[in-house]
Amino acid sequence: MKWYIDSDRPIYKQLVEQIELRIISGFYAPGDKLESVRELAMDAGVNPNTMQKSLAELERMGLVFAQRTSGRFITEDLKVIEEAKKTIAVQEIGAFLEKMKKLGLDKLEILALMEKVAEGENQNDDIKR
Amino acid sequence: MTILNAKNLTKTFGKKTALAQIDLDIPRGRIIGLLGPNGSGKSTFIKLATGLLVPTAGEITIDGVAPGVDTKSKTSYLSERTYLNGWMRVNELLAFFEDFYQDFNRIKAENMLKDLNINPNDRLKTMSKGTKEKVQLILVMSRSAELYLLDEPIGGVDPAARDYILNTIITNYKEDASVIISTHLIADIEQILDDIVFISNGEITLTSSVDEIRETHNQSVDGLFREVFKC
Fold first, then answer.
1. What is the dihedral of CA B190, B192, B194, B197, to 10 degrees?
2. CA angle B125–B128–B131, rounded 5-degree value
3. Residue B99 phi, psi dihedral angles, 5° rounding
4. Less Cβ crowding at N or C end of chain B, within 10 Å?
């Protein structure tokens, strides 16, 4: 999996988001051991202190926990992961609705359009089959 | 505990002031970008830290001691221009460094040379500018120093090798060592920096962490630099 770092937002926040996404999407399974700070920093091409800060934040969020001698692990608490997923979904939908409003669409129009698009996707799936 | 401390540090060349009353503390375990336009005093600062130049006024100390024989064993310096002899082969340079510095790790250097496809039997003068730079940086980063002073480390290196070099920097320093990098290729290195120091006309105009800048200015260090030093 590749890391993407924008130039205009704090790096540690972006690392938090991307590791969070890796956990939610199952790239890291619950209970998995995380690589060391240095390995992760090298992989992402970032400063080890910044990676350290991101992991501390993920710990605070409950998505990662540290075991004193053996390193950091992904939480085994599925509820926490589910919560994180929901939070991100709500944020994404909020941003999406904001954009649709700018286009001048009201709620009903958005919903109708969404259904239409989703149906289209289903049909495409059918054709592929 | 700071690894480098400058107090009222001043350097003049004749009538020209290169550095004017600089106060700076560099803690251990950090990577610091020393950023400023051409002629702002970056190299002068680094040369004062190595002991190649002597302050006109004020003082600079490495681990509490003025630059000298003692601090040279703790600092690993990449000069902006090479001081190595062109007729030497890479192998000979490795022996040279091994001889000179107790903290030089030859195996580490050989591995990096292999990674960058540099033939240890080649002579320095037969190499391209970029390859020469790579060899120098490998020598410097293969030491286990307390303080690395890198003056324009990536200027002549292609982007792919740049990534490799930045990775060597972030993986090769000890946890309590610090790295000072002077450059104007900010966009390429800002991801690996903890803190930045903006220097302009021999004065420090801003010290901050990279993420602080991104947080407060909503732009990259590179963006802020372009804005602050707009011509």
1. -40
2. 100
3. -70, -40
4. C
Domains belonging to chain B, first-starting first, are 2-228 (3.40.50.300)
Residues 172-191 of B with CB under 8 A from A: 187, 190-191
Count residue pairs from A and B with Cβ separation < 8 A: 54
Q: Which two tokens stand for residue A50?
A: 């910044």
| pTM assigned to the model | 0.87
- Burial tier of B44 (Cβ tally within 10 Å: 0-12, 13-18, 19+): buried
Best residue of B30, B115, B170, B196 to probe chain A, by most A CBs closer than 10 Å: B170
Instruction: Check if CATH label 1.10.10.10 holds for domain A11-76.
Output: yes
Q: Which residue has the tokens 């540090």?
A: B9
The predicted-structure confidence for B2-39, as pLDDT tens digits, reads as follows 999 999 999 999 999 999 999 999 999 999 999 999 88
Check: complex ipTM more than 0.85? no
B21 phi and psi angles, rounded to 5 deg = 45, 60
